[in-house]
Amino acid sequence: MNSYTVQIASQAHFDLAESICNEMAESAKARGTGIAKRTPDYLQEKMSEGKAIIATDDVTGEFVGFCYIETWQHGKFVANSGLIVKPSHRQYGVAKAVKSKAFELSRSRFPDAKIIGITTSLAVMKINSDLGYEPTTFSELPVDDNFWKGCQSCVNYDILTRTERKICLCTGMIYDPNQASPKPESDEKWIFLKNLADFTQLKKIKEKLLMPFHKKGKSK
Ligand SMILES: CC(C)(COP(=O)(O)OP(=O)(O)OC[C@H]1O[C@@H](n2cnc3c(N)ncnc32)[C@H](O)[C@@H]1OP(=O)(O)O)[C@@H](O)C(=O)NCCC(=O)NCCS
Fold this sequence. Notes:
Elements: E1 4-8, H1 17-31, H2 40-48, E2 52-57, E3 63-72, E4 77-85, H3 94-109, E5 114-119, H4 122-131, E6 134-136, H5 145-149, H6 157-162, E7 171-175, H7 196-210
Parallel strand pairs: 4-5
Antiparallel strand pairs: 1-2, 2-3, 3-4, 5-7, 6-7
The structure holds coenzyme A.
C-alpha cells in the first residue's frame, strides 16, 4: 500500500466527492444496510466549510478514507459521520487516523460539544473507545428529529420506531468533554468491549430480543 496523507478536506478535493459517494453506496450495498443518501454536493459543502477529513494516496491522489462533521441542537452535539475507507486500504489503520483527525477538529471547533455516534461496527466502537467515547443510552443523544433521520434508510429502522428510539441494534457512544477522563494508557485500551466474544454475545442478545422473526440481522 502506498503512503497516504490525512488532512482537513478543502475545495482542492471537490473532484473526489463523487468517488467517495460511490464507495459509500457500494459499501452499504455490500453490508446489506440502508444508508442516508449523501450526494457529491453535500460532501463538497462539508469540504468547503472545513468540516471534512480526507485521506489521500500520496502516489495516485485517490481518496482512501473520509468522514465529516455534523452538528445538532446549535452545536450542543457533534458527530463524525460518513466514515468510509476504500476496501483495498482497510485494516491498515486508515479509519483510526481519519477519526482521530476528525475528533481533533471537532474538539477545536466545538470545544463544548458532546461528540456522539451510533454504530454496530466493532472497528468504529474500538476507535471511538480509544478516543475516550463511552457507551450511552439513546436518551443521551440528540432529541432533534434531524439526527434520527439518518436512520430512516437503515433496514432496522422499524426497530428504532417500535421502541420509540429507546433501543436498536446500534450502540450509542458519547464523548462528554465535561466528564472526560485522561486518555487511557495503551495497555489499558479497549476496556469497554474487552474482546470480540463479549461484543458478539451482546449483538446476538439484541438481535434475539429485537428481531425475533429474523434468523440473522444486518445493520450499519
Ligand atoms: C469500518 C471501517 C471504516 C474500518 O476501517 P479500517 O481502516 O479498516 O479500520 P482500522 O484499520 O483503522 O482499524 C481500527 C481498529 O478496528 C479494528 N478493526 C478493523 N476492522 C475490523 C473488523 N471488521 N472487525 C473487528 N475489528 C476491526 C482494527 O483491528 C483496529 O484495531 P487496533 O486499533 O486494535 O489495531 C471500514 O471497514 C469501512 O469503511 N467499512 C464500510 C463503512 C462502514 O462500516 N463505516 C462505519 C459506519 S458506522
